[in-house]
Structure to design on (417 residues):
């Protein structure tokens, strides 16, 4: 049997007290370090969020691809090496794919099943997806906005339900396949509204606004984080955007971003723009106007240049990419159907590919994208107090200041050679 004296208890108590005191001091000393680490982590999360919000995307609408494949077309890179079209777009420096959706297309192309098939290709390659609802069985644009055959006799109230059902149905199919679109367009080039005459903006402004808002709500019910776009044509025409978006604003319509079409060659030929550079200048001014007036960013979701003048097309696209990337309120540029060779689908001449024996490969127009992939993206992080000695790469990711290459610090771009 062990007998402990008063002296033994005193020694043990002193030892325990010493451990408690030393432990408390260690915690006090560690607290500022923990707080600093926690603050740094929170700052990094905020920076990452801001980078994603303001990143600049290069993309293409390649909705024709499955139809072309069914007609026997295939694709190859400039070296003649066979490629699947979506993978080729990524190889060319693109980060996103746009896909149009029709309600009940006669041949199935651009219907729900076909859209999911194409979106999966992009998703598996790590590319972002923009879904473009036309709310028609075929083409919808400023010259025509035909109501789908199944909706023709429907009232405005029924049309709202149709829009909700169609939008959620397509998006649920994408979700079930594992695809989460980053952006969703509610209507295509709705410069005078959509679903005529029920939603014609010049005659039924309130109903136009109501249909767009119904589409917005439907998108958010499936993908709460998806950015919803209103899409108009003629990006150089500020008067058009003021008129149309003011109608939406008047009726409280919700949208996260504005999509623009800008075809500089057509703007010069048909819309009295002096030259390609002037059309791009006016577009950039319009993007600034949209941000200033409606407090939303813009993305150029359609552009194209005459494929028969490829050198001019490359120069025009390079200028557009540079000006758009420098514009703090522009989120990207998408080329419309670049994979189409000259004359495809009855005469489309603003693709960016050439064709031989039904093998389509990129012209030099597409080099504008790949040449833009390393030095064009603008700084995506606004300077903060925490940025004093911090650097970012051109995609907005935090890095150590490199010995060579492009980087951003204190809100400015630098190049070390």
């Amino acid at each position: 049997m062990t007998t402990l004296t008063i002296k033994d208890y005193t020694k043990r108590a002193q030892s325990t007290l010493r451990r408690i005191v030393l432990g408390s001091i260690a915690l006090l000393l560690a607290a500022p370090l923990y707080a600093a680490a926690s603050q740094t982590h929170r700052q990094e999360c905020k920076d990452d969020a801001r980078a994603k919000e303001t990143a600049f995307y290069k993309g293409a609408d390649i909705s024709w691809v499955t139809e072309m494949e069914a007609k026997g077309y295939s694709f190859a890179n400039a070296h003649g090496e066979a490629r699947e079209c979506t993978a080729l777009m990524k190889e060319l420096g693109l980060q996103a794919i746009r896909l149009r959706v029709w309600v009940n297309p006669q041949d199935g192309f651009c219907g729900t099943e076909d859209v999911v098939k194409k979106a999966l290709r992009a998703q598996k390659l790590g590319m972002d997806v923009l879904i473009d609802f036309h709310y028609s069985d075929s083409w919808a644009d400023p010259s025509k906005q035909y109501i789908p055959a199944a909706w023709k006799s429907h009232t405005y109230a029924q049309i709202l339900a149709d829009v909700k059902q169609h939008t959620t149905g397509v998006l649920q199919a994408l979700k079930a396949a594992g695809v989460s679109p980053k952006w969703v367009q509610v209507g295509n080039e709705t410069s005078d509204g959509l679903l005529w005459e029920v939603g014609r903006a010049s005659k039924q402004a309130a109903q136009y606004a109501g249909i767009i808002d119904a589409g917005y709500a439907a998108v958010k019910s499936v993908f709460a984080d998806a950015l919803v776009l209103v899409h108009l044509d003629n990006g150089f025409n500020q008067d058009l955007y003021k008129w149309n978006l003011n109608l939406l604003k008047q009726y409280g319509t919700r949208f996260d971003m504005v999509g623009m079409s800008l075809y500089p060659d057509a703007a010069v030929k048909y819309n009295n723009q002096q030259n390609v550079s002037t059309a791009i200048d006016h577009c950039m001014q319009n993007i600034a106007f949209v941000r200033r007036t409606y407090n939303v960013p813009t993305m150029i979701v359609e552009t194209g240049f005459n494929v028969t003048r490829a050198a001019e097309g490359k120069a025009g696209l390079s200028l557009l990419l540079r000006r758009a990337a420098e514009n703090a309120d522009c989120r990207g540029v998408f080329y419309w159907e670049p994979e189409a060779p000259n004359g495809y689908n009855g005469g489309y001449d603003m693709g960016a590919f050439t064709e031989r024996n039904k093998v389509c490969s990129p012209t030099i127009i597409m080099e504008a994208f790949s040449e833009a992939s390393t030095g064009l993206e603008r700084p995506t992080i606004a300077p903060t107090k925490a940025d004093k000695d911090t650097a970012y790469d051109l995609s907005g990711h935090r890095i150590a200041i490199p010995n060579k290459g492009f980087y951003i610090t204190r809100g400015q771009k630098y190049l070390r050679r």
Q: What stands out?
A: The two ends are 80 Å apart (CA to CA). The longest strand covers residues 330-336. DSSP finds twelve helices and 18 strands in the chain.
